[in-house]
């Protein structure tokens, strides 16, 4: 089973489309756990409508947790994770739309072997797909501009999204190992989660928002876990912090 974990905060503009894409997944063995961090726009109305969709449905696996304060993304995802039961955990931003086969493509790759892989099979603990840019609005543009194909580090230890702002021309069209997955839509193996958690926290809650995905990628690498990039798994993401603005964020941001 896959546990889909979503933390929301004033996400009404994107949330309905995100949730619809979750329901359209062709992989059916899943549960959905949503944590709302005291949204004040229309997020809670969207969530209650979503809950009503499941009302009375036998075997419905949905839980929505309403926090009284904004605890941050990392804490919200940890809170959702603590309620989850899946062998796999999809950390999903509310501003992401998934193609219907996103989950099934990642899972099919999770236990397979890449043709170019060495005989000593790597320990895959995380997987990421190809994220393209989504510009919601009247035109609802789902572009072919790359948002992320995994994260990598510069020599000064800044981390960036691989391929960000490039037009997708097939240049990232083969499966390969990357340093880590961007937290917008990352699939994690539960055994890895348990292995690299510190003090009961998978995402380090000192990172209120941003950089928590890079931190856990470091921990995963140190503990011998790898991240596989799967280009057949496609999603669209609203980039609210541009690469240029991200470079200007302080290292200690929380």
- CATH structural fold name: Spore Coat Polysaccharide Biosynthesis Protein SpsA, Chain A
Number of domains: 1
Task: Give the overall shape, derived from the CA principal axes.
Answer: globular
Kindly name the structural category. Answer: alpha/beta
Strand content: 25-35%
Share of residues in helices: 25-40%
Cα-to-Cα separation, first versus last residue = 32 Å
The CATH C-level class name:
Alpha Beta
Average predicted confidence as pLDDT: 86
Count of discrete alpha- or pi-helical segments spanning 4 or more residues: 7
The SSE string, one letter per element, is: EHEHEHEEHEEEEEEHHEH
DSSP strand tally? 12
User: CATH homologous superfamily name?
Assistant: Spore Coat Polysaccharide Biosynthesis Protein SpsA, Chain A
Q: Specify the CATH architecture.
A: Alpha-Beta Complex
Which residues form runs of ≥5 with pLDDT under 50? 245-254
Structure description:
There is one protein chain. With about 250 residues, the protein is α/β, with parallel strands linked by helices. It has one domain: Spore Coat Polysaccharide Biosynthesis Protein SpsA, Chain A (Alpha-Beta Complex), CATH 3.90.550. The chain is about 25% helix and about 30% strand. It contains seven helices and twelve strands. The chain has helices at about 10-25, 45-55, 75-80, 100-110, 190-195, 210-220, 245, and strands at about 1-10, 30-35, 60-65, 90, 95-100, 125-135, 140-150, 150-155, 160, 175-180, 185-190, 225-235. Strands 1, 2, 3, 4, 5, 6, 7, 10, 11 and 12 form a ten-stranded mixed beta sheet that branches. Strand 8 (about 150-155) and strand 9 (about 160) form a beta hairpin. Helix 1 (about 10-25) runs parallel beside helix 2. The two termini are about 30 Å apart. Mean pLDDT is about 85; it is low at about 245-254.
